[in-house]
From TrEMBL:
Protein name: Smyd3 protein
Lineage: Eukaryota, Sar, Alveolata, Dinophyceae, Suessiales
Residues making up the signal peptide according to the UniProt record: 1-24
UniProt keyword list: Signal
Highest taxon, organism lineage: Eukaryota
Length: 222
């Protein structure tokens, strides 16, 4: 194009901009030059984006965490009181020199009453506080060995106090020994004329006790 035609075109464009509104002028200029003007951006909306704008955002929230309920008192008590261990310190009065016998017994805590029967059958007394008996609760320990495992049979035909016999078959560890504890089914005598002996109405049962320590200490004279 010649310089004169370009000058005339620019003059016409300036006149058009002065007479038309700004929006109409921009549209006309865009059609004339067939290119987007500087500062005017065309917004392109993708199909997926358009659907998301219509439906809105969806937020996925994790479900609430359910915490474990605290242990009940009965559960804690059961865990702590499975077994009981008793220490006996018994002086030997007939010894030529002062001597002390020390024994440790392990048994189920629920068999504590039967353990006292076992001590009475053995003739254990605490007269004058010469002998001492101290007990504590403890948990199951598979490492405890038994120098002796005994059973107390009481109730029914065995009477209230019962009888004490060695374990059969012999048990070398506390777990096997105390597993012998159980109830015994003994039907009551049919008539009053039956020779029931020392019949006791309590449930017949067998309680086992593990003697884990049995030593004697002799005092050496000067």
């Amino acid at each position: 194009c010649s310089r004169g035609r370009i000058s005339g075109f620019l003059a016409a464009l300036a006149l058009l901009a002065a007479c038309m509104p700004a929006a109409a002028c921009l549209a006309t200029c865009k059609r004339v030059f067939e290119v987007p003007l500087a500062g005017v951006a065309k917004r392109t909306v993708l199909p997926g984006r358009q659907r998301s704008l219509k439906t809105g955002r969806r937020v996925i929230v994790e479900p609430p965490v359910r915490t474990r309920p605290p242990d009940t008192f009965s559960d804690i008590s059961t865990q702590r009181a499975d077994w009981t261990e008793c220490l006996i310190k018994d002086p030997v009065p007939k010894a030529k020199a002062a001597a002390l016998r020390v024994e440790t017994w392990v048994f189920r805590t629920k068999d504590l009453g039967d353990f006292h029967r076992h001590l009475r059958l053995r003739g254990f007394h605490n007269n004058g506080e010469m002998a001492s008996l101290s007990c504590r609760e403890r948990r199951v320990d598979a490492e405890i060995r038994c120098s002796q495992c005994v059973r107390l049979l009481c109730g029914g035909y065995y009477g209230h106090l019962g009888v004490c016999v060695p374990a059969y078959p012999p048990q070398g560890d506390a777990v096997g020994c105390l597993a012998l504890s159980k109830t015994i089914d003994m039907p009551a005598p049919a008539t009053e004329e039956d020779d029931s002996g020392d019949w006791d109405g309590d449930q017949g049962r067998q309680s086992a006790f593990c003697n884990s320590v049995n030593v004697r200490f002799d005092k050496v004279g000067n």
